[in-house]
Amino acid sequence: DTPTIVELILSCRPDVAISVNWPTLIVPTVLAKFPQGILNAHAGDLPRYRGNACPNWAILAREPSMAVTIHRMVAELDAGPVLARREMPISPNTYVADAYAFLRQAVPALFVQVLDDLEKEVAVAVDQSAAPAKSLRCFPRLPSDSEIDWREPAEHLAALVRASAEPFGGAFTYWHGERLTIWRARAEDLPCPWMGTPGQVANIMPETGEVVVLCGRGVLVLEEVQHAGSQRYPAAVVISSNRARLGADVSGELSRLRHRVAELECRLTKPDAVTPSPKPDPDAISISESKKGGQNVDEET
């Protein structure tokens, strides 16, 4: 809202402006310089989904659909009247990349539609509901929000995988102390009663490349994963042992850190001393070992 910007706007004599992913709120003094307002494309079904990361949150909430809306900007965040809306269904197979593909197609078409309607003076602006119960403020998501908690129901974890996939960094867990990104997965029910700890590998299916992991309720079937420093593989190529337990081993990591600290202290105080190494994990299997001979290293069920 500096005088230079206001003068530049007035010199162009604009009727209307469009906004996509503008990072800040626009002050009323600037909004008032456009007779038809500034139109914003918002990747959420207003007023229900206001704010940030709306497609991701819609998938996480397992909504039946998401929407993109064109609204006239006001001083309040995502609160102006809506001039156009287009909906996209969300299914258990919808990934966030599908939502972005929809937005790339829908946003330009909706802008053209609204600008044509404004020119023909047939545009209809519908005020958003002011009732707090009808609006939902969505806050930003951080990469760490995509860490998998295996105690959660499988349906929630499958939604997390789909909401965190490309173009984002992916949902992740840990396997033998290293990050394991899960790019593709689905939720299923177990066909029989079971007892086990969430995160436990329950079944490996070499014929499909899938790995079944116990959750707080149901199972998550891992389809495509990426271990730290490697490329993407079918899950059964990376995880080939039914003994495997996914998730952060906090107590094990603390033990290794304590050993490392003791080793460093010993080297500082006694440079010639040798600190014994911690015992290796008999169940730890590297990716290269799991691929030898093209078969499972551990055939336990």
Automatic annotation (TrEMBL):
UniProt region (Disordered), positions on chain: 269-301
What positions does the domain Formyl transferase N-terminal occupy? 5-115
Gene Ontology molecular-function annotations: methionyl-tRNA formyltransferase activity
Does the record's keyword annotation contain Transferase?
Answer: yes
Q: Which SUPFAM superfamilies match?
A: FMT C-terminal domain-like, Formyltransferase
Query: Mind telling me which Pfam families this protein's record contains?
Result: Formyl_trans_C, Formyl_trans_N
- Give the record's keywords alphabetically: Protein biosynthesis, Transferase
Q: Mind telling me which InterPro entries this protein's record contains? A: Formyl_trans_C, Formyl_trans_C_sf, Formyl_transf_N, Formyl_transf_N_sf, Formyl_transferase-like_C_sf, Met-tRNA-FMT_C
Looking at the keywords, is GTP-binding present?
no
Q: Name one GO cellular component term.
A: cytosol
Record protein name field: Uncharacterized protein
Q: Which organism is it from?
A: marine metagenome
